[in-house]
Design a protein that fits this description.
By secondary structure, the chain is an alpha+beta fold. The protein contains 6 helices and 5 strands; from the N terminus they run αββαβββαααα. It folds into 2 domains: about 80 residues, Beta-grasp domain (Ubiquitin-like (UB roll), Roll); about 80 residues, DNA polymerase, domain 1, CATH 1.10.150. The protein has a 5-stranded mixed β-sheet with strand order 2-1-5-3-4, sandwiched between helices. The site of one FE2/S2 (inorganic) cluster has 12 residues, from loops.
Length: about 190
């Protein structure tokens, strides 16, 4: 067997067939043909060109890639796109528009909750998912009474519940103020 034949055989062994998947992103069905190993983050950014969702660490440590799937927050770098054919995916682009900001986006602007802005799409998606979790009565590590039906969203609660979203600019006090505004306003 020649060297080139050996190479061809190895390439054939390593080849992965693309998979067809229809993703519903921001209310629109998008047809994609992807290497099945493609993360949801890469599908959004590289294939759908929705670059609002950011890649920070690419391994679940920073929260920059947070999006909402069926209303729940998820690190899109840690999940495969092909797993989400039946889901409703919402990215920062689907939350509001420059003329009609989502209340959480408006609160971040009002409270100056960002500096470079790199973490901000993830912070906002995460905050919206977090408020839904708190409303549903999910306790956090900071919750004193885990059996309580409702938990007051103190700053300690917000900090703990948002601890998966890192801000290298350390805009944390303003991020917390923005989230508190929305929580107290009953929006989000
Ligand atoms: Fe996904 Fe950092 S890029 S958690
Ligand atoms: Fe710069 Fe958060 S605003 S990383």
């Amino acid at each position: 067997m020649s060297l080139s034949t050996v190479g061809d055989t190895k390439n054939a062994e390593n080849a992965t067939e693309n998979a067809k998947v229809a993703l519903t992103v921001n209310g629109r069905v998008r047809q994609l043909e992807l290497d099945p190993r493609t993360s949801l983050l890469d599908a959004l950014r590289e294939h759908l060109h929705l670059t609002g969702t950011k890649k920070g660490c690419d391994h679940g440590q920073c929260g920059a890639c947070t999006v909402l799937i069926n209303g729940r927050r998820i690190n899109s770098c840690l999940t495969l796109a092909v797993m989400h054919a039946d889901d409703e995916i919402v990215t920062i682009e689907g939350l509001g528009s420059p003329d009609a900001l989502h209340p959480m986006q408006a609160a971040f602007v009002l409270r100056d909750g960002f500096q470079c802005g790199y973490c901000t799409p993830g912070q906002i998606c995460s905050a919206i998912g977090m408020l839904a979790e708190a409303k549903a009565g999910w306790p956090s590590h900071a919750t004193a009474d885990v059996a309580a039906q409702t938990t007051a969203l103190t700053d300690a609660e917000i900090r703990e519940r948002m601890s998966g979203n890192i801000c290298r600019c350390a805009a944390y006090p303003n991020i917390i103020a923005a989230i508190r505004d929305v929580a107290e306003g009953g929006r989000g």
